[in-house]
Amino acid sequence: MMRKKPQVSICAVVLLLLQLTTTSLGDDGSVMLKLAQSLQNLPSDWSSTSSTGYCRWTGINCDNSNRVTSISLAKSGLSGTLSPEISSLTQLETLSFQINNIAGAIPSLANATSLQDIYLDNNNFTSVPTGCFDGLTNLQVLSLSDNPNLAPWPFPNELTKSTSLTTLYMDNANIFGLIPDFFDSFSNLQNLRLSYNNFTGSLPASFAKSDIQNLWMNDQQLGLSGTLDVLSGMTQLRQVWLHKNQFTGPIPDLSKCESLFDLSLRDNQLTGVVPASVISLPALLNISLQNNKLQGPYPLFPSKVQKVSLDHNNFCKNSSDAATPCDPQVTTLLQIAGDMGYPAILSDSWEGNNACDGWPFVTCSQGRIIIINLANKHLAGKISPAYANLTSLKNLYLQQNNLTGPIPDGLTKLASLQNLDVSNNNLSGKVPDFGSNVKFTVSPGNPFIGTNVDTTPGGAGTPGSKPSGPSGSPAASSKSKLSVGTIVAIVVVVVIFIAVVFFVVYKFIARRKHRKFGRVKNPEVGNEMNKNGVTGGNGTNGYNGVPSELHSQSSGDVSDRHLFEGGNVAISIEVLRQVTDNFSEANILGRGGFGVVYGGELPDGTKIAVKRMESNTMGNKGLSEFQAEIAVLTKVRHRHLVALLGYCINGSERLLVYEYMPRGTLAQHLFEWHDHGYTPLTWKQRVTIALDVARGVEYLHSLAQQSFIHRDLKPSNILIGDDMRAKVADFGLVKNAPDGKYSVETRLAGTFGYLAPEYAATGRVTTKIDVYAFGVVLMETITGRKALDDTMPDDRAHLVTWFRRVLISKENIPKAIDPNLNLDEETIESIYRVAELAGHCTAREPQQRPDMGHAVNVLGPLVEQWKPATREDEDGYGIDLHMSLPQALQRWQANEGTSTMFGDMSSSYSQSHSSIPSKPSGFADTFNSADCR
Ligand SMILES: *[C@@H]1O[C@H](CO)[C@@H](O)[C@H](O)[C@H]1NC(C)=O
Ligand SMILES: *[C@@H]1O[C@H](CO)[C@@H](O)[C@H](O)[C@H]1NC(C)=O
Ligand SMILES: *[C@@H]1O[C@H](CO)[C@@H](O)[C@H](O)[C@H]1NC(C)=O
Ligand SMILES: *[C@@H]1O[C@H](CO)[C@@H](O)[C@H](O)[C@H]1NC(C)=O
Ligand SMILES: *[C@@H]1O[C@H](CO)[C@@H](O)[C@H](O)[C@H]1NC(C)=O
Ligand SMILES: *[C@@H]1O[C@H](CO)[C@@H](O)[C@H](O)[C@H]1NC(C)=O
């Protein structure tokens, strides 16, 4: 913009000459007459027939030559329009028509070079002509706020010439598009108010070169995005309103913003720890951060800060523990996330203060993190040195991301480390020596590893602090900087990719042929191949790391599968065909009302259950609704909830992939134990299972504030693991809106006997309906009888009615207890407590039933009494074994498409055949409510 200066001065001279001519030729009277004719409700001394004496009209000021210098008719009840001739008032400095009801187009003010202040806010203008403010080189204030009926228009880029601008108010003016990046032109700009428009894109970097003190950009319709990093350079800031947008990434360091007193960042997508520099801002009075994804310790602001709002974030503790640090493992994980720019996936899913409480991507043993799997998560930034603090870490998978910078030396100090995979990133620098105990995979990918080339975005001196690329304009510059190395890398990847496609297709065909003749294959051979492949890097198997998306989208027939964006959960139909041996009869675990369930086994031995729903049972449930629900369900992770690992949409059929539970359902253990070759559950096992169920359901209820998460709770939906602990299956989102009723109707038949009486009257699903069903399950657990038993006489057929009668007097209870239970005094006492709880849960009036938390509180101590010495067990339980399932799948998906995996897969076929039991079924009787409505 600077280079224009010489031209500007020539123009000024020309203009001056022009002005002199116009002055001598015409006068402002004719313009004023036009103006008087176009406006209505003018002051009485204005005339629409004669311009005589216009300099004395109310609101008009003139200079000595009768040239109009200001028009000031604010708040005068004016209507009508502004005549286009107004820009001919070449001496006009102030145009002030705010707070009227003037309609029509704003006249072009271009080349009215004397204009300094324009106030047209709070009117009813309908459009702004292109170039309206062109050439206003003396403009200081432009206020167009609150003209909500303006036709949508973009930011007036011609303002870049108005270098004297101090105040720009254009809020609520129907502006759309990007905020231009020329604020370095406005070295005097102090007030920028663009709220309540439809701006998109990121905050321009040139903000840092202006003098903005008051920045109001809140409430954009679609929302501004990108990070807030630019704020840290805006040292004059006093008031910042950026709420109700889509900003991401952490709150930046604001330590230089010493005058900032009002900071409103609520209702965005901000992640990360609230920086100390923000908590200690010297001038701060107001701060609102609620409704973000902020992490780390709950911040404690000094008492001088008058207004603080922090609700609805992902802090590790709550306000009662403000300012206390998170658990050390959580702190370390936050540092790791921080070095990758605090990606949103590591905020939403890493909640609370216990990293071993089912956090995705993390696997623990005995309360210590042993596996971290962040492969293929589109992560940028660097590998954090903080990994070195996780002293029990065995496996670290970071392949298939966009990580840059070096591999920290500290990782070599991890004594337990066995696997480290960083392939397919963009790392550089010296390779640490990991010794022979660590399977270290660095290639393919990482073309600059071992060199000093700085691969961090922006080159030298930008550590991982700003890795998340803003979605707006600044990204463009880095695109053009494709180095030769990158191009070579791309070419290599493409060539490898094509090779892999051919190889995979070849392998697939070969395997098919092979199987026709018999599928015997030595598992040892397969495993050996696998090992070689993963450690690879010797050139023969560089296809190891080709992203699964590429593979799946390009090999075979594209039309029969869908892989969705961010597709950790979408699994291709090929994969499911392979692991279920093309949905072979032999792999059927069972059949439910909605389709067939198949067992399958991933190459690493992880077993899965695949529900394949017949298309006609899906009704017309919309694809997007299905996906939306899947997106929620895959995030619901709890050690007592069966994990949904993924899904597949194949034409009109939908498939859901769950973790496999080897010991069948609670129903089988209670009612059909003999048929399945089980021994009857002991009382201790039963109460433990009941507590597991209560905990799982309690967790679901804690999620209920958004959409209700409903349980179709009954023993056939309670699944048992090898350790005889329970997980709850069949939960999902339930809408209680009138048209949400369908979701419950389909399950009525299945839930009969478990359904609370009020459901029939209200049709509403509430947490108390689950509590009732849980009470019924407790009764079944005590009596060994089904909720409905037709073989019984009528007065005993309905378990709740009968058992509640039994409960009336305590001495009746022993006769009702399952004869398969061994009763000693301690057991009887425990049964009394559970029977009492069952009665309480099945109270007729929903408000008389306790909530699930109460059930947990009653059952907890009963279980506790049996295991004084095994606390450790409980802490480690369920996480080590079960939480690794999604990770195993992810890791496997990440490696999908390699020859070795296919080779290995054939071997696991033979294994899975022998290992899938013919009868016991690790799947729920009914289906997840996501399945079919
Ligand atoms: C403003 O002045 C410039 C330079 O004299 C000229 O090119 C442009 O057309 C003028 N704009 C209007 C709307 O008169
Ligand atoms: C603004 O103008 C629109 C027509 O463009 C009209 O419908 C509306 O009533 C006007 N608003 C006010 C407050 O006069
Ligand atoms: C906001 O702007 C986008 C284009 O940037 C447009 O597609 C969208 O319709 C606008 N929204 C509204 C509510 O005007
Ligand atoms: C703080 O926020 C409240 C409510 O938004 C507002 O009324 C008050 O003026 C603000 N105070 C300061 C000093 O900004
Ligand atoms: C990690 O270790 C470093 C030193 O190696 C230490 O400064 C840091 O506080 C540790 N972080 C945690 C969360 O323990
Ligand atoms: C890496 O970044 C590029 C550009 O930002 C993106 O297109 C690509 O998908 C990313 N790769 C991965 C594996 O996330």
UniProtKB/TrEMBL annotation:
Pfam families: LRR_1, LRR_8, LRRNT_2, PK_Tyr_Ser-Thr. GO terms for cellular component: membrane. It catalyses: L-threonyl-[protein] + ATP = O-phospho-L-threonyl-[protein] + ADP + H(+); L-seryl-[protein] + ATP = O-phospho-L-seryl-[protein] + ADP + H(+). The chain crosses the membrane at residues 487-509. It is a single-pass membrane protein. It comes from the Eukaryota. Residues 1-26 form the signal peptide. Its main location: membrane. Keywords: ATP-binding, Disulfide bond, Glycoprotein, Kinase, Leucine-rich repeat, Membrane, Nucleotide-binding, Receptor, Repeat, Serine/threonine-protein kinase, Signal, Transferase, Transmembrane, Transmembrane helix. Residues 463-479, 906-921 have a biased composition (Low complexity). ATP binds at residue 611. Its EC number is 2.7.11.1. This is non-specific serine/threonine protein kinase. It comes from Citrus clementina.
